Amino acid sequence: MAANISIQPTSMKDVTKMERIGAHSHIHGLGLDANLEPRDSAQGMIGQGKARKAAGVILKMVQEGRIAGRAILIAGPPSTGKTAIAMGMAQTLGADVPFVNLTASEVFSLEMSKTEALTQAFRRAIGVRIKEETELIEGEVVEIQVDRSVTGATKTGRLTLKTTDMETVYDLGSKMIDQLQKEKVLAGDVISIDKASGRISKLGRSFGRAKDYDAMGADTKFVACPDGELQTRKEVVHTVSLHEIDVINSRTQGFLALFAGDTGEIKPELRDQINAKVGEWREEGKAEIVPGVLFIDEVHMLDIECFSFLNRALEGELAPLVVMASNRGITRIRGTKYKSPHGIPADLLDRTLIISTGKYAEGEIREIVKIRADEEDVRLSLDGLELLAKMGGDTSLRYALNLIAPSQLVAQRRKSAQVDVDDIRTAYRYFLDVDRSAAYARETNGMMFGEEEEDVDKKDVMSMDTSV
Ligand SMILES: Nc1ncnc2c1ncn2[C@@H]1O[C@H](COP(=O)(O)OP(=O)(O)OP(=O)(O)O)[C@@H](O)[C@H]1O
Ligand SMILES: [Mg+2]
């Protein structure tokens, strides 16, 4: 079985994880210059220079393939840009370097064991860049002939292709005929047929036929009639993740499971076979490993079993860079009664590089609010911007950003295209920030259900001015 590990279908991407990350849609990178120095404001990123630079250095090593099997932790108080920095890293990686985004609690909600969920995430984050030779038939169409049966149910036909040196007639089945019709292939077109998949692509019209049609569209591309043999070989390079190879070769699942997102558990023996095969390809120079990034947000939600899995998995030969983020201070490690910084066991922390994020200055908050307002197509008056910036400093950056949209609705109700101080004040009255909500909870004590346990206290969350 190991002999015929398949990587088809090659053009497939793992579509189930695609999502629009609204809150971070203004982030287009880490905003660093060529020397990895953070610019004040670039690619949607403001401030937090030290953390951005550290992230940039790590990324550089990932891109050069020099770092894998390591763990990074971005630690800091809530809404200080930890997730934003990870998104910036994702945008900076090359197109074929995998970035996998996982929220720790997802591990518990999937219909599979925790370790299987983590294994799949690990393998999603490892790319295999494969060089393949494909056989193509490339030539100019001389003639397409289609014979229909009396009932019209079956179609057969012949396709005559030529190069400057030769001409051959191919028999066509109904699938190929349908494809030719779909691609609107006519005599005089230069086409390429992938022999393995039967896919037809139109390369352009032959120069030789340039004069035949005067009703050609302006965008018609003219190409030379190919020379030499009709059959040619071409090298193509594409990257698939180990997980994609797993799923495609898992007999019970089949590749359609990749689209459904319902991949179930994959047998360890299959993974061993695939690892062995990929190892062979590497030795033969047919494949390269591209270690990517696995981002685990809210990592304190993992439990002790997951952490011990991580410890072990990071040592594997095929491990990606693991980036974690947490806003917890000293807190209980899930599944134990022990406390530890960020809820992460000491042995894992020990092998982790820690990047910290800190509170923003008011000027930086103002800039971020401005960028977000632009992103959400909201026009803020100058005073409105000042007020939101101040609110961001007094409450939290996220609260200020969250007020932008409701304030706009308030402004629209009074038919104003611009959001002003009063609109923001109204929205501020409608929606509580954390402190006011806590005050409300205290006020209504006895009327709402509550838990008396000490651990659920707010003090486990990094307070706004504690730096790590
Ligand atoms: N340096 C920054 N530049 C631009 N936008 C930022 C920056 N930092 C944070 N933001 C934006 O502020 C909002 C809150 O930040 P983010 O979600 O990254 O915080 P966090 O540190 O992950 O918080 P939490 O601990 O609550 O998860 C997001 O919309 C984010 O895109
Ligand atoms: Mg976050």
Automatic annotation (TrEMBL):
<dbReference type="GO" id="GO:0000812">
    <property type="term" value="C:Swr1 complex"/>
</dbReference>
<comment type="subunit">
    <text>May form heterododecamers with RVB1. Component of the SWR1 chromatin remodeling complex, the INO80 chromatin remodeling complex, and of the R2TP complex.</text>
</comment>
<keyword id="KW-0539">Nucleus</keyword>
<comment type="function">
    <text>DNA helicase participates in several chromatin remodeling complexes, including the SWR1 and the INO80 complexes.</text>
</comment>
<dbReference type="Pfam" id="PF06068">
    <property type="entry name" value="TIP49"/>
</dbReference>
<keyword id="KW-0234">DNA repair</keyword>
<keyword id="KW-0804">Transcription</keyword>
<feature type="domain" description="AAA+ ATPase">
    <location>
        <begin position="68"/>
        <end position="359"/>
    </location>
</feature>
<comment type="function">
    <text>DNA helicase which participates in several chromatin remodeling complexes, including the SWR1 and the INO80 complexes. The SWR1 complex mediates the ATP-dependent exchange of histone H2A for the H2A variant HZT1 leading to transcriptional regulation of selected genes by chromatin remodeling. The INO80 complex remodels chromatin by shifting nucleosomes and is involved in DNA repair. Also involved in pre-rRNA processing.</text>
</comment>
<dbReference type="InterPro" id="IPR042487">
    <property type="entry name" value="RuvBL1/2_DNA/RNA_bd_dom"/>
</dbReference>
<keyword id="KW-0156">Chromatin regulator</keyword>
<dbReference type="GO" id="GO:0031011">
    <property type="term" value="C:Ino80 complex"/>
</dbReference>
<dbReference type="InterPro" id="IPR041048">
    <property type="entry name" value="RuvB-like_C"/>
</dbReference>
<keyword id="KW-0067">ATP-binding</keyword>
<comment type="similarity">
    <text>Belongs to the RuvB family.</text>
</comment>
<dbReference type="GO" id="GO:0003678">
    <property type="term" value="F:DNA helicase activity"/>
</dbReference>
<dbReference type="InterPro" id="IPR027238">
    <property type="entry name" value="RuvB-like"/>
</dbReference>
<keyword id="KW-0347">Helicase</keyword>
<dbReference type="Pfam" id="PF17856">
    <property type="entry name" value="TIP49_C"/>
</dbReference>
<protein>
    <recommendedName>
        <fullName>RuvB-like helicase</fullName>
        <ecNumber>3.6.4.12</ecNumber>
    </recommendedName>
</protein>
<dbReference type="InterPro" id="IPR010339">
    <property type="entry name" value="TIP49_P-loop"/>
</dbReference>
<dbReference type="InterPro" id="IPR003593">
    <property type="entry name" value="AAA+_ATPase"/>
</dbReference>
<dbReference type="GO" id="GO:0005524">
    <property type="term" value="F:ATP binding"/>
</dbReference>
<keyword id="KW-0378">Hydrolase</keyword>
<keyword id="KW-0547">Nucleotide-binding</keyword>
<dbReference type="InterPro" id="IPR027417">
    <property type="entry name" value="P-loop_NTPase"/>
</dbReference>
<keyword id="KW-0227">DNA damage</keyword>
<keyword id="KW-0805">Transcription regulation</keyword>
<dbReference type="GO" id="GO:0016887">
    <property type="term" value="F:ATP hydrolysis activity"/>
</dbReference>
<dbReference type="GO" id="GO:0006325">
    <property type="term" value="P:chromatin organization"/>
</dbReference>
<keyword id="KW-0010">Activator</keyword>
<dbReference type="GO" id="GO:0006281">
    <property type="term" value="P:DNA repair"/>
</dbReference>
